[in-house]
Design a protein that fits this description.
Elements lengths: L1 E4 L2 E7 L3 E8 L2 E8 L6 H10 L4
Length: 55
Amino acid sequence: MKIEKNGKIYEVEDNKSAWVLSVKMGKVSLDYRISKSDCADFEALRLFVLENPTL
């Protein structure tokens, strides 16, 4: 699954207890872990990413 925001493409991995977002910026790769208690489904995660200015 993927989420696109401001030209960045976040790869999404669905784990049992958390979502893992991975994004590459040049030679750097960042991973964000977001608990499923904060975002229960993919749509909630997508909205969280799109509304969060730090991502």
